[in-house]
Amino acid sequence: MAIHVRLGVVNAAHRPISTPPALMRSETVRLPDGRELRIRPIAPADAEPIAAAFELLTEDEIRRRFLHPIKALGPEYLQRLTQPDRHKDFVVVAAEPLPAGKALVAAVARLACDRNAPKHAEFGILVSHFVSGQGLGRLLMQRLLDWASKRGLQEIYGDVLYENSRMLNLAREMGFERVATNDPSGSVRVRRLLR
Ligand SMILES: CC(C)(COP(=O)(O)OP(=O)(O)OC[C@H]1O[C@@H](n2cnc3c(N)ncnc32)[C@H](O)[C@@H]1OP(=O)(O)O)[C@@H](O)C(=O)NCCC(=O)NCCS
Fold first, then answer.
1. Second label for 65, Cα 20 to 30 Å away, from 1, 110, 111, 161?
2. Residue with the nearest Cα to atom 20 of ligand 1?
């Protein structure tokens, strides 16, 4: 049975935090392992828990997300991540159902519109190994796609390491195609065109 079918939505509330209500509903999901997580737009207070959670990630997870090793998330990156320009960027987290700042953050998914092509946006997603393989990656990607469609974007894309079969499978299943690139970094670009 597909993983995403087993992930149950507990409730959904119209409680926008950093985006207009029409573009993002917060929702609580119960994972197959019993954990309850809140799917919501990122908040400035998430910076500290995200920095702390980063310490618990494996080198492999970090390299798959950022395509190269990173030791820590710097303050500028954290500020851009947690205080996105809501007209150009969208960031959603899966976190404990506690107030931002107190809640541990288990996953972050981001769409960042290109400065020179604002109808195109790059995705980045990281689901911590503590909660992976339970449908969260698929759900968060769907929320990115929902936001992109509502914003009238034309394309979302991401660079994924060739060896990252998990992300490549997920992307393929969600309608992304591979774009021919000659990237020496060992990554392949996947993209999905939107109406
Ligand atoms: C890639 C990633 C986002 C997937 O998140 P996830 O929550 O584990 O994914 P899901 O549980 O939603 O699974 C979605 C799909 O991934 C694939 N998948 C999941 N677990 C897998 C595994 N162990 N092996 C191979 N594919 C797997 C399947 O295609 C699955 O589809 P299904 O629901 O039909 O079975 C997560 O592993 C991750 O954050 N990895 C590190 C960072 C990264 O690679 N980011 C992507 C580049 S930006």
1. 1
2. 133
Residue 116 CA, ligand 1 centroid: distance in Å: 30
Q: Nearest 5°: phi and psi at 27? A: -150, 150
Q: Domain span at residue 17? A: 3-154
Pocket test for ligand 1, best of 63, 125, 170 (most atoms within 8 A of CB): 170
CATH code for position 87: 3.40.630.30
- The whole-number average pLDDT for the span 85-95 is 95
Residue nearest atom 27 in ligand 1 by C-alpha distance: 166
Residues facing residue 110 across a β-bridge: 91, 124
Minimum CA distance residue for ligand 1 atom 5: 137
Entry pTM: 0.89
Q: Is residue 186 part of a domain?
A: no
Closest to 35 in 3D by CA, of 136, 125, 140, 144: 136
pLDDT band at 24 (very low <50, low <70, confident <90, very high): confident
Task: Give ligand 1 pocket residues (Cβ under 6 A).
Answer: 2-4, 61, 64-65, 124-127, 132-138, 158, 160, 164-167, 169-170, 173
* Total number of domains in the chain: 1
> Is residue 166 in a domain?
no
